[in-house]
Amino acid sequence: MKTYKLAVVGATGLVGQTVLRVLEEFRLPIREYKLFASKRSAGTTTSFMGQEYVINELTDTSFDEGFDFAIFSAGAGVSTRFAPIAASKSCIVVDNSSAFRMDPKVPLVVPEVNIEDAFCNSGIIANPNCSTIQAVVALKPIDRVFKIKRIVYSTYQAVSGAGQKGILELENTSNGLPHSKFAHPIFNNCLPHIDVFTENGYTKEELKMINETRKILHRPDLRITATTVRVPVLNSHSESINVEFENPFCVKYVRMILEKSPGVIVLDDPSKDVYPLATIATGHNEVYVGRIRRDYSVPNGLNLWVVADNIRKGAATNAVQIVSELIKHDQ
Amino acid sequence: MKTYKLAVVGATGLVGQTVLRVLEEFRLPIREYKLFASKRSAGTTTSFMGQEYVINELTDTSFDEGFDFAIFSAGAGVSTRFAPIAASKSCIVVDNSSAFRMDPKVPLVVPEVNIEDAFCNSGIIANPNCSTIQAVVALKPIDRVFKIKRIVYSTYQAVSGAGQKGILELENTSNGLPHSKFAHPIFNNCLPHIDVFTENGYTKEELKMINETRKILHRPDLRITATTVRVPVLNSHSESINVEFENPFCVKYVRMILEKSPGVIVLDDPSKDVYPLATIATGHNEVYVGRIRRDYSVPNGLNLWVVADNIRKGAATNAVQIVSELIKHDQ
């Protein structure tokens, strides 16, 4: 069996640390791991694969020693600067940042949805935005059969989506301390404001959901709107998804399709209070789908409630899955 | 000036107590107030209008002494039994419960929207569901000009909507104590489950939003779907509302209409992080509207973010406003 050398960039962050946990679980044929972070963390150690790994400072020459893969989770700035360097040295980068997602030369990949795109890469593969990943995992299998016509997204996004600082901010504002990470206190509020506002009144997060869904589904003209909202929940994003399909469907069959879809767990038995919840999804790699019911206000309308661990499937797990698939096809 | 005698039924509950606060603020020409609750609370006192009022037990003969108005906030059971008795004794009941809302003989009234309906009553006027009230206050002024074609509601509803027990449950589950009021712990979760589930997979809360919006707007066939969600927020409901209109509109004009609409406060300056929030709405009687922006996925689409104090405008204030309007027209 071929073995590989993998770099984890941003290994000390919330996503990076979860990348390490997922790598431990996935047991890929990696012969050597190397962990990178900023100068601030360099020289410290972190537990990984049952031992203490030293954190190395990421520099222009970090990739000179040769890597097969690198998983970047250190923000758009670091990715913009270092991912092309890694790629130029034959390392395939799976990038968790937004830096390259909409670059037409860069595939934007969710393994359950469009793994085929990953193989046509020029060294960089982008990991989509967390809220988009879980949506398309649930939508693609139904789209295949009934063809999506329009999507209305309303999200309920956890504070962990803003990293350790987001988590701390929920705790701090719960204790009456002032806010600093979010524009307003997240405690006792739902903030309709994730990432920055753009000129047309949409936030970047909303535009990401619209544009990334289109790119992943290969439907550049798909009609989508989105309202993305931060809620005072620690981890796992929930989404109210309203979809119209081109073709008539029966709800039972949609449920059956989802039950058989990779990476999807259907939790949908309202009579027993069974539906997806953030605390159920947290710590798991799957996308949970429930409240599957017809929207009677349009001919082929459907409502879904979709929940996933935004740090796992929304970031770390999806990235590791991409590497795993590339390795599988390289054996 | 004519003066009136008013009964407050359910005076010790979360809504009932807020009815008292709103009555203190509104200073209606009421010459005599009488407060009622269940046997359990009878004999206790509560502060109201600067003095201590005795709570009386509600019985079949409570309305024999003659009342002009009664505001009921004691649940559907109490309303079903006692509101007809009050009405039969010439008392006009404004009922906060769901008992009579869809009764074709009972007007369902939001003063800013359809106060005219209130005058055609047979002794009972229903106060709509909290999540519906704030939605129609925001939607009606735009509907008047551009005619709504379809609505997709996704709600972010505070625990106070479930009364004192809901508030206690958020506190308890935050402290690791078990849940009892909601089907699952509300701490760190968004529960897509308000009121009970019905056969078609919708909750009663979702059906209330659909049916009550239609009744209040006098549009029995209006196309609406809804996903209603309880969030770990103390007070004030937020709503992501997606609307399609029959006629073309310009967003600036929509904003202008809303700015001039009674009971609406527009908070919509994203560049300055200004948008409605639960903590801003709490304690106020108005409906806050922001994130007003075009939905580009349909010809005449609009997204709104609508927040209001569910105990005030969603219940107590709306009821007192109805009484206030009836008095104004009776002078």
Description of the structure:
The structure is a homodimer of 331-residue chains. Chain A has helices spanning 14-26, 75-88, 111-118, 130-146, 163-174, 204-216, 251-259, 278-281, 312-330; strands at 4-9, 30-37, 45-48, 51-57, 69-72, 92-95, 124-126, 148-156, 223-227, 237-245, 264-266, 287-295, 301-308. The mean pLDDT of chain A is 97. By secondary structure, the first copy, chain A, is of the alpha/beta class. In chain A, helix 1 crosses helix 9 and helix 4 (130-146) packs across helix 9. Chain A has 9 helices and 13 strands. Chain A starts with a strand and ends with a helix. In chain A, the strands form 2 sheets. A 7-stranded mixed beta sheet of chain A has the order 3-4-2-1-5-6-7, sandwiched between helices. A 6-stranded mixed beta sheet of chain A has the order 9-8-10-13-12-11. The interface between A and B is large, with 54 and 54 residues.
